[in-house]
Sequence to fold (188 residues):
Amino acid sequence: MPGPVVERGERVTFRTVERSDAAFQQRATTDPRVRYLLGMAEQKNLEEAEDLVEDRSESDSNLSFVVCLDDEDAPDGHPHDEETTPIGMVHAHRVDGERAHLAYWLLPERHGEGYGTEAAELLVDLVFRTTSVHSVGAGAFAHNEASRGLLESLGFTQELRHREATYVDGEYRDFVNYGLLRREWAEE
Fold:
């Protein structure tokens, strides 16, 4: 069950990641419709997912949130199951350095509804408002056109393409790195 509200957008809410959210992450990221877009060759069992959640949520160099759709009446504190619906997760790694790195995913049934763009935009804004990073980077596999389009719509610039970087779902896939400078975000 996601924790208290950290940030609210127009439609999505960021809630803290709790150890109990590991089961949600584990179920979602083992789904081939998510896993292959993320380039994950192997699945994580629940214990491995719990360790990952714990590492990310306890690190001062990461910002990690459960992306939720909250009912109008959902409290900022710990909501009941029927008051909030987790739909994905967002992470900003290395926020204590010069360049943070974004990672995000949504449940497949929420793709194409604009929630990913809103969540990524909210995260980028939060990173630039609350940290001193100079830039934010993100990456996407070349075959993940939705993620690449999302990054480009937020002003990210393609910086590097790794040809046949990773073997995913039966073939080698190109990986594309993107970047966004603080001043470019401020201009938008």
Summary: Residues 5-187 form a domain with the Aminopeptidase fold (CATH 3.40.630.30). Helices lie at 22-29, 32-38, 46-58, 115-130, 145-153, 182-187.
